[in-house]
Amino acid sequence: MRCNLRLFRLGFFCALFLALLGTTAGADGSVTLFVDVKPGLALQVQDSLTFPEAGPGQGVEADLDVTVWSNVGWRLLVSARAVQFDDQPVDLEGQLEVRSASGYWRFLDQVEREILTEQPPTTGDGVTVAVPFRFTPGYGDAPGRYAIQVEFTVVSEI
User: Fold this and answer.
1) 3-state helix/strand/coil string of the chain
2) What is the CATH number of domain 41-156?
């Protein structure tokens, strides 16, 4: 009987040891992480655009590529101003126009014009759109090269 008691104690302590070993070796924990993603917008425009040569009253057209990245609905605005090469304002009689998504040509000046509206969020690759421009020189414009600065703005629809 003494042998059975000894075996019982040994078995009991082995079982207790294994139970303790199992609870400490298999411990785990978990945590929930939260992150708030805010609206994000970015755009990239090619460096320059050169129109074909044109005489007074002759409209010439060229497209400018604009790439937009957005995780929300967006719209694209544009404005322009004529400058000399040293960034001084110049009085240019000719007219610069941009074609909106609706297909209408709109004169461009320092007032922002909407050219794309109600656009869906983009993928991580962004969306590249070709923006059509038309310039018609006037008879009051002396021959030579003129620069027109165009500024694009992408804004959230929300």
Assistant:
1) CHHHHHHHHHHHHHHHHHHHHHHHHCCCCCCCCCCCCCCCEEEEECCCCCCCCCCCCCCEEEEEEEEEEECCCEEEEEEEEEECCCCCECCCCCEEEEECCCCCEEECCCCCEEEEEEECCCCCCCEEEEEEEEEECCCCCCCCCCEEEEEEEEEECC
2) 2.60.40.1090
